[in-house]
Amino acid sequence: MDFQFSEQQVLLRDTLSRFAREHYSFEQRRKMIDSSELQSAGHWRQLAELGLLGIPFAEADGGFGGNMIDIMVVMEEFGKALVVEPYLANIVLAGGVLRRVTDDAQRAELLAPLIDGGQMISLAYVEPRGRYDLSEVRTMAEKSDEGYVLNGQKIVVLNGSSADRIIVSARTSGVATDAEGISLFIVDAQAPGLTRNGYPTVDGFRAADIEFDGVKVAKSAVLGPIGQGLSLLEAAIDDAIIAIGAEGVGAMDFLNKTTVEYTKARKQFGVPIANFQVLQHRMVDMFIEREQTVSVLYWAAMVSALGGTETQKATSALKIQLGRATRFVGQQAVQLHGGMGIAEEGAVAHYFKRLSMIGQQFGNADFHASRYASLDALRQRDA
Amino acid sequence: MNLEFTDEELEFRGEVREFFAKDYPQDVIRKSEHWFELGKSDYVRAQKSLFEQGWAAPNWPVEYGGTGWTHTQRYIFLKEMGRCGAPWVIPFGLMMVAPVIYTFGSDEQKKRFLPDILSSDAWWCQGYSEPDAGSDLASLRTDAKLDGDHYVLNGSKMWTTMAQHADWIFCLVRTDGSGRKQQGITFLLIDMKSPGIEVRPVITVEGGHEVNEVIFDNVKVPIENRVGEEGKGWDYAKYLLTHERTMVADVGRSWYNLERLKRLSAQVDAGTGTLLDDQVFRRRITDVEIELIGLEYTELRILSETETGGAPGAESSILKIKGTEIQQAITELTFEAAGHSAFPYQKGRFYPDWSEKPIGPEFASVAAPRYFNFRKASIYGGSNEIQKNIIAKAVLGL
């Protein structure tokens, strides 16, 4: 058992923190998210040059053979600086599906441009009626002579408007909420019948709603075994939960430190408000919530390699802890900053917004508590 | 970063499991499982079985009889011990006074006291709190005056756990009241058979006898029973308190009690299904379980830092806060699981020799008392509010 980061991971952290210092001052970031174009292409190219886009992929696929601990290191630094590059969308979500595809040729073709930063790929899996249930898929893929025809609607596709290709979940058999019969397809974003409606998100990223109206794809567009796409999707989402867990831990770190500094500097009634015990204990509670999240995160990241029920339980546990911690730390940081906490021109408000979204991205604590309980019941039964 | 155990560690875990399944007194485990009170002889027998195995003092240096385990082995040991349902180790000798003696005591004191602590032939209790010194421990007033070759002690200690069984008590006493209150405190080791000591039971909320008031009326304590220097007792006490904090997390036992709670809830009929099927109740169990996972890895992270050279810092206060919150949450949920069956009050249930038939389900007969009793956890060992003060000051720099 070992809780130390490797030398390489420490280096990786330094690299990222330098990147954030150079490109992600609060003012730089604000300009970025205010402009209609989200991330500057320059940043993405730079991340590619630093080798960061290849981290989770096998060396045979042109990647660096890293694991979720490495992703955790990256995302924690991104969280500290509130980086809005589409790393989660491309590398963790789309990449999470693609790196698990067993067809070597398909993987080689799709991953190379993703790793070198030449192409962006988004994962379109959320539907208007599905909420957090990954098996709630109503988008239909009907078999045709050449392949499949896709009809349906996906919402809140992260980075969807900038993507060159879209991975979409669609039903090849069964009815909505069946675990079986879900297949994944890779679709050109310019394909006829595909329309995107892009928009900024409340936390500074960009997303798109995507309509599929008779979009034709070839047989070769199927990723993984037909009808068995759910497990690929689940695995990618479990990766993504660990990623946003780390991002949340980074963001909470920033907020906790900022809040301590602010209360030491802010004077009321003739004294720094940090002198008040009620505020001191609040900040201790914020500190403990983050530490507990770090602990669950480490566990989840370390068991992620196992796959299966244990990984799913761990990511749900992480999501429950994250739900509680992000709410508490976000709200209390705002509270302790007083009016300054709700000013748009202050950093706190932006961290609060991102943390709020992390709380319910990929399922809120309620959803994951049910998932955790049913996975636990499964374990009890098998024991 | 990885969670894997080495082959040696897995083998060690097997050894620990086998020990607790065979050589450790099984009747003690059974009593403890059902939340029965253990008597002194139960504790001593259990502890002696560990001593015979050479496992009595995982936290001690090898030269005094420690096990020389790595932090991973210690973790495995404590976790297995907790998860098999074994009772806690009475900490006052092995985990509290012993580290003070081997760190600050004289060679004579080490020779005289450590072997009996290791073999559980001497039962110790802790004389810290006083009627007027709780969270503000340094304001203690038990007075010790040097008179030739001994101190004369007058005053009283409060909330002294299991003093009724104790052969020895370690005490913080005041030898000088003139300076800052943290100065002038001295650490004494006192024979409970000394003339002038009176132990008065304090019955706690559930009806049990766990704690006492210990009164000192002109008690003579030989000067050779003073640990370290006169007036330096506060430093030794602070050292001891960090030891106490790292141990209160009690993760293994909380896992045991949480799994027990699930098992019991699955037997409680709640109309259309069992209580465990009840979404709202299940959610509350899950929330505690997630806290416990967090605590387990927080403890491992802290241990890992100490292994690589760091000292357990004020972060260990997290273990006290979260550990006790979780223990309390589990006793509270177990109490709620009992429903109306929590009402019958069978006072003898909290004494070691109880043999009556429980009224209602067995677990329910002790669910409320245990819940009542465990409100102590966030109060003892430096209340959780004091722990927050420590984190605020030492970690956050407030």
Structure description:
Chain A folds into three domains: 7-115, Orthogonal Bundle (Butyryl-Coa Dehydrogenase, subunit A, domain 1); 121-227, Butyryl-CoA Dehydrogenase, subunit A, domain 2, CATH 2.40.110.10; 230-382, Up-down Bundle (Butyryl-CoA Dehydrogenase, subunit A, domain 3), CATH 1.20.140. Chain A is globular, with a radius of gyration of 21 Å. Chain A is built from eleven helices and ten strands. In chain A, the strands form three sheets. Chain A has a four-stranded mixed β-sheet with strand order 1-4-5-8. A four-stranded antiparallel β-sheet of chain A has the order 2-3-7-6, with no helix packed on it. Chain A is an alpha+beta fold. In chain A, α5 (87-98) runs antiparallel to α6, α7 runs antiparallel to α8 and α9 (308-337) runs antiparallel to α11 (365-382). The two termini of chain A are 24 Å apart. By secondary structure, chain B is of the alpha+beta class. Chain B folds into three domains: 7-89, no CATH class; 123-231, Butyryl-CoA Dehydrogenase, subunit A, domain 2; 248-394, Up-down Bundle (Butyryl-CoA Dehydrogenase, subunit A, domain 3). Chain B has helices spanning 7-22, 26-33, 40-53, 71-83, 91-104, 107-118, 233-247, 251-265, 279-307, 316-338, 364-373, 384-394; strands spanning 124-127, 143-147, 150-161, 168-174, 185-191, 197-203, 209-222, 226-227. The mean pLDDT of chain B is 93. The chains are: A alpha+beta (383), B alpha+beta (398).
The name CATH uses for the topology of the largest domain in chain B is: Butyryl-CoA Dehydrogenase, subunit A, domain 3
Low-confidence stretches of chain A: none
Output the number of helix runs of chain B: 12
The name of the CATH architecture of the largest domain in chain A is Up-down Bundle
How many β-strands of chain B, per DSSP?
8
Amino-to-carboxy terminus distance of chain A:
24 Å
CATH superfamily of the largest domain in chain B: Butyryl-CoA Dehydrogenase, subunit A, domain 3
Overall mean pLDDT score of chain B? 93
Gyration radius of chain A, to the nearest Å? 21 Å
SSE pattern of chain B, N- to C-terminal: HHHHHHEEEEEEEEHHHHHH
The CATH architecture term of the largest domain in chain B is Up-down Bundle
Shape of chain B: globular
User: SSE string of chain A, helix = H, strand = E?
Assistant: HHHHHHEEEEEEEEHEEHHHH
Helix run count of chain A: 11
Estimate the mean pLDDT confidence of chain A. Answer: 95
Q: What quaternary form is this? A: heterodimer
Strand order of the largest sheet of chain B: 1-4-5-8
Distance between termini of chain B? 32 Å
Q: What is the helical fraction of chain A, as a range of percent?
A: 40-55%
